[in-house]
Design a protein that fits this description.
The chain has 491 residues and is α/β, with parallel strands linked by helices. 35% of the residues lie in helices and 21% in strands. The chain has 16 helices and 17 strands. The strands form 3 sheets. It has a 9-stranded mixed β-sheet with strand order 16-15-14-13-7-12-11-8-17, sandwiched between helices. The chain has a 6-stranded parallel β-sheet with strand order 3-2-1-4-5-6. Strand 9 and strand 10 form a beta hairpin.
Length: 491
């Protein structure tokens, strides 16, 4: 099956932080892929904007080197020539006046086009950049701004950022990006629930025992150590990526698949999350920090060694037991787990169904295993539905827990590129369905902040775990106290 790529209307895209890691590793390779599939119109232009003193030719060479590294063997010389012709560069001072006039002049060459300002910078620059965009006359009804995470470090800072951006851009012009929502499996979760009658009648507390959401990484913090040590796993992953996944699993059917209808239902889930306060953090959360160990047989340093410090109380691993106060989900725990330097890199959602109320198979005992639906977001996108089946052969009934396996790569014969590609094209089209609204961000922080406060007031320190493991033993103990276990087929 061949994917259908519909060209978008002409646009100008300015990437602030255009020389940074995100631009070189994700955004520009993603735009190259869209160009390769003929989705970008000939008139589309891409501007890098940063404080580095670079000529256009020097910037093009930098982008070409990044594409060689991150696109690799898929790089096509003809497409590359076409793509770099779109590129331009503006040296700009985000906090000052330098470069803004030049940028306004270049964008003014095509005033009728959609203008996209992608802020791939530190969040403290979001407000100043937006003010300078307005001051330079760049902002008009066709201008849109894309905000990268993290959007603040708590509710107060997030509200400050949103207020500063909101003084320049309307909510309908503001796109808060979470690249997890651009993954095919995440979008297919919506399709699975609302385009198939099979699952939705059983998508509630009467049929589901619990839900697990795991986002594991086998890498350490690397060059992000300085940022990460001020953030930690709860802020870096749970507040945005994992809570967004939880919302899509738990939300009620929207009235239509449009931006406000979907985001209204997601907001209801966030507001229905039961608070985890000071008295709950010991039983509902686990913090961890990796020590030296081995991943894939290769020795790796611990977190402190990577930081070059002797002490840090930042968590690189976290488990949260969440509950939703609603009729649909009453009594169903959601176990949220994420960490660095774990046994493997994987992101998956496990819907664990309840046991059959009565087994008619006398003596089958433990052979009857409850059904389980597993949605794999990465690295191999797809889903598995585990069902009980009879093993072939005579000699009585022997049961086996067998998966029905849908692999996207095998079923569709399509290479799925990075999630940023889909989301960038959604911004161009003006479709905010897969982007976070201001009130969603605030609701997520209102739930996260008490956990952070509880850790601080109770002095909850990260538990050590060996790199290459699945985290501290406390994580196993937390779910085991409920008579449950982590899904093990994750490697």
């Amino acid at each position: 099956m061949t994917a259908l790529f519909i060209p978008v209307e002409p646009f100008d895209l300015v990437v602030f932080g255009g020389t940074g890691d995100l631009a070189m590793r994700k955004l520009l390779p993603g735009l190259y892929h869209r160009d390769s599939d003929n989705q970008l119109p000939p008139e589309a232009r891409i501007f890098g904007a940063a404080r580095a003193d670079l000529s256009r030719d020097a910037y093009v060479r930098k982008v070409e080197a990044a594409l060689q590294q991150f696109v690799g063997n898929a790089l096509d010389s003809a497409v590359l020539r076409r793509f770099v012709e779109r590129l331009d560069y503006v040296e700009i001072d985000a906090l000052g006046s330098h470069g803004w006039g030049q940028l306004a002049e270049r964008l003014g060459e095509a005033p009728e086009r959609t203008r996209i300002c992608y802020l791939a910078t530190a969040p403290n620059l979001f407000g100043p950049i937006c003010r300078n965009l307005a001051k330079a006359g760049i902002v008009n009804p066709l201008t849109r701004v894309v905000l990268e995470k993290p959007l603040g470090h708590d509710l107060a800072s997030a509200q400050t950022i949103n207020d500063e951006v909101g003084q320049v851009f309307g909510e309908d012009q503001t796109y808060r990006i979470d690249h997890y929502l651009g993954k095919e499996t995440v979008q297919n979760l919506i399709t699975l629930r609302f385009a198939n009658f099979l699952f939705e009648p059983l998508w509630n507390a009467s049929a589901i025992d619990h839900v697990q959401i795991t986002v594991s990484e086998d890498l350490g913090v690397g060059e992000r150590g300085g940022y990460y040590d001020k953030s930690g796993a709860l802020r870096d992953m749970v507040q945005n990526h994992i809570l967004q996944l939880l919302c899509l699993i738990a939300m009620e059917p929207p009235t239509a698949f449009d931006a406000d209808a979907v985001r209204d239902e997601k907001l209801k889930v966030l507001r229905a999350l039961k608070p985890i306060g000071v008295r709950d953090v010991a039983t509902c959360t686990v913090r961890g920090q990796y020590r030296a160990g081995a991943v894939d047989g290769k020795a790796v340093p611990g977190y402190l060694e990577e930081l070059g410090r002797s002490y840090s109380d930042t968590e690189t691993f976290v488990v949260v037991k969440a509950e939703i106060g609603s009729w649909r989900w009453a009594g169903v725990p959601f176990y949220l787990r994420t960490g660095k330097r774990l046994a493997s890199r994987a992101s998956e959602i496990v819907i664990q169904y309840r046991s059959v109320p009565h087994s008619i198979f006398i003596g089958a005992g433990r052979q009857i295993v409850p059904n389980r639906l597993v949605l794999r977001l990465q690295p191999d996108e797809g889903m598995k539905l585990y069902l009980m089946s009879k093993e072939p052969g005579p000699g009585g009934l022997r049961f086996k827990n067998t998966p029905l396996n849908l692999s996207y790569a095998e079923a569709f014969s399509v290479k799925y590129h990075d999630a940023y590609e889909r989301l960038l094209m959604d911004v161009v089209r003006g479709n905010p369905t897969l982007f976070m609204r201001n009130d969603e961000v605030a609701a997520a922080w209102r739930w996260i902040d008490p956990i952070l406060d509880g850790w601080a007031s109770e002095g909850v320190q990260p538990r050590p775990y060996q790199a290459g493991s699945w985290g501290p033993s406390d994580a196993t103990a937390l779910i085991a106290r409920d008579g449950r276990s982590w899904h093990e087929d994750i490697a």
